[in-house]
Amino acid sequence: MSQIRNISLLLALILIFSHSMAQSDQFKKASGGQTRGANQRSPKDTVKFVMKTYKLLDEMTRAEEVKVDTSINNYQNYHPELQNSITVQSLGNFGSAYQSNNFFQRADFNNSFLFFRNYSEYGIWANQNIYYNVTKPYTLLEYGQWFANKPNGETWLKVFHTQNIGQKLNFGIIYNSISSQGKYLNQEAKVRNIGFFSSYNNDRYDYWFALSKNQFDNDENGGLPQPDDIKNPDLKPENLPVWLNGANTIMDNLSVVFSHQYKLGSWKEVKEKDESFEIFIPRVTLMHTFELTNAKRKYTETEPNPYYTYSDDRGQVFYYGKDHIPCINGETGTENEPATIDRSAMNRLSNRFYIRFVEAPDRKYTFGKQVFIGNDIIKVKFPRDIVTSGDSILGLTDSEKYSNTFVGGSIYRSKGQFWNWNASGKYFIQGRNSGDFEVKADIDKPIVIFKDTTVLKLRGEMVNSTPNYFYERYFSNHYKWDQNLDKTYRLTVGGSYESPKLKVKAGANYSVINKYVFVNEDVKPEQAGSAFSVMQIYLQKDFKAGGWNFLNKVMFQQPTSQDYLHIPQLVVMNSSFYEGLLAKVLSFQIGFDVRYETEYYADKYSPALGLFYLQNDEKIGSFPWIDAYINLRLKRTRFYIKYSNLGTLFMDGGYFTSPGYPAQIAAPSFGLSWSFYD
């Protein structure tokens, strides 16, 4: 009931704002600056809907346009972690922990809260916000669920609204939720996100503001003690034994970002047709960015070392090991008084100051330049390293505060027709990360070949970074370490070539890593004893024949050492569908998706730590993931019907997304999306 009440309140606020702040101004022309002196008033009924979307790059100083996909292509793929990667490792339930199997998509999280790395695609993050400018209020409602939603189904909901007040001021609100009970015991996942953003763009002054609140609430079952149980047709998923009962992880994040700038420049008179008006051309900007993040995690469990009794000679096997001794409390607890209450947190306050020399749109040979200085104040928390009698110590935390000061700069060309490029650098001059540096560069070069504007992209990155704080110091009821790790050095180069006419995209990435940090088989962070490299090549080629479409992706990746990193070597994906138009108004697609990855020693997952860790005992993969679907679009409404994981209907087991964690069995689902701006 509380969720329904919150959604109703949100929709009521959207309707109030939409009707009380109607808009009648169209966008000014895209000229790189502001205009004055022109008559821009239009009758309300002639205003066309225009939406511009952009995000902030380069330490949140440079705007780049992004596209919002409103087509029905791939609409059936509603899992956000699979929208950006063709292969992921997960716990098999929507909203649970995952990691991308594309090595070059794994984030480092060096100065962030480490335990969010496995939930990043499920959250709304203030520092990654997309900003809008619209001529009419725009609202998007999306909803999806399994057909048999109770008692073991899943639902998801998205509510988005944005509108302008005049031409310069925009605001928006976002609400997302996931509720997934899952087919197996003790794997319920709940995700709640809410965000608010606003931007103001004037001739002299701009600001961008974003606030986000995320909560991830997951029951943890630890996987199946007997994975072969899924092959038994007499056992239903909800009756299979699992490792953990009464274990739960709750994580919260509150982030605020405020970035603003004052622009120095001049007005320039422009004549267009019979009109004369002035455009403000910014030359230099003074900019400040403020960021505040509060992140925390709590893990609780009733049994400090659960066990499972096998019917063979293995006998009793303990989840944390036969000789495991909990660090704080080894007594069995209850739901109200758990045996384990592990709390960890990170608070970060960041300020950055910039001087930018703006890329001038009225000059032929120009590029942007900027320098900055910044400071982070970070406070971390984790359970106290004290063993006492009784439970009074549970949930209490130690804390440590440290800071970093850094300087940097960049040069860039983003409005050129011949090419666009960007080069940036950052160096830490003080604090825990003193001596860290990163240098990045990328080039986008359009190449016209037989009237096809192809694009060649090259990039390079060199990073020397201090490992995440929690890799060096951590204490909980099950794991503890206090160690000093060396800086990790990583050199990455890559490139891609894309031809829209031929519908092909190909690329390669190569990375050399020294002092790589991973979580070893003993569930403890360790540093690689030698340097190694990872090579990746990928190809995407689409074919169309009449109404038939065949979208194909292939990715091959190979590390030079299997001692520190396990990823699938080959991943293949195909989406085949027939599309058409019914009654001249209803667009449709009917087809299926197939994804396959070779066998590999996938990482195991530790619920108590909240991270994946290396293992060399069990392989997963070599299983075809097959989904059948129908996508429909009628004006502004999109709809899908999907039957997921059809392979479980005719194949005997093998459908694991992590060791001990099977995927959900075949199930139908549907979803719809409705956008309106009248």
Structure report:
This protein has 678 residues and is mainly beta. Helix content is 4%, strand content 53%. It contains 3 helices and 38 strands. The strands form 8 sheets. The protein has a 22-stranded antiparallel β-barrel. Strand 12 (247-272) and strand 13 (275-301) form a beta hairpin. The longest helix is centred in the N-terminal third of the chain and has 19 residues, at 2-20.
Percent strand equals over 45%
Shape: globular
Structural class: mainly beta
Spans where pLDDT lies below 50 across 5 or more residues: 15-34, 37-43, 387-392
- Report the total helices: 3
* Helix share bin: under 10%
Total DSSP E strands: 38
Question: In short, what is this structure?
Answer:
The chain is mainly beta. It has a 22-stranded antiparallel barrel.
